[in-house]
Amino acid sequence: MSTSAKVSVVSNLVALAALALAWTGAPIGLLVGYEWHKLLHLTGVILFFGNMIVGPLWLVFAWSDTDRQHFGFAVRTLVAADIWLTMPGVQLTVWNGVALATAFGGARTQPWLVEALALVVLTSLLAILVVLPAQESLARACGAGDERAVRRALIRWSIWGVVVSVPPTIVVVLMVTKRALLLGS
């Protein structure tokens, strides 16, 4: 397992621990003012979504180049960006989101927060169990220079990348509207 994969797994497990803490109803106070937590939370969302959008674009542009070394570089950059952008984004989003939930009476008091928590857990599980192995496969295939394996891994990573991007997109809708989709408002 690569360093990036290890960082991703640890980051997702830490995020899941924060969500579990929020779910228990443990009193989590605001360490700084509400506005600071909101700013840090939104900064995390921007980092997370930014890399989730830009990363695949790097690969699309690199794949369209006939020089496969460019594609290998794009994959290595994607892996590094996960460490430097996605994982800090996840941590800022989750921990500050958990703190902000206290302003609404806790994570389990609002149906839209319950749905958001469930979707974040789903996102983390998909990332650890499906997307991360697909990305590791892609990186290994690029390193080996196996064009056929790269194509297979790229298709798998692309499909699961789209799937894993749906739950956080729904979470943004829940956060903005503060209305549950399934559990009632």
Topology record:
Blueprint: H1 3-24, H2 34-64, H3 68-101, H4 111-144, H5 147-177
Helix pairs in contact: 1-3, 1-4, 2-3, 3-4, 4-5
Describe the structure.
The chain has 185 residues and is an all-alpha fold. It has 5 helices and no strands. The protein has helices at 3-24, 34-64, 68-101, 111-144, 147-177. Helix 1 packs parallel to helix 3, helix 3 (68-101) packs antiparallel against helix 4 and helix 4 runs antiparallel to helix 5 (147-177). The chain is elongated, with a radius of gyration of 18 Å. It starts with a helix and ends in an 8-residue tail after the last helix. The mean pLDDT is 89.
Annotation keywords:
185 residues; mainly alpha; elongated
- Note the overall shape: elongated
- β-strand percent reads under 5%
* Low-confidence region ranges: none
- Write the H/E string, N to C: HHHHH
Structural class by secondary-structure content: mainly alpha
For the largest beta-sheet, the strand count, sense and barrel status come to:
none
Quote the distance from N terminus to C terminus: 43 Å
Query: On the 0-100 scale, what is the average pLDDT?
Result: 89
Report the count of strand segments: 0
Count of discrete alpha- or pi-helical segments spanning 4 or more residues = 5
Rounded radius of gyration (Å): 18 Å
Helix content: over 70%
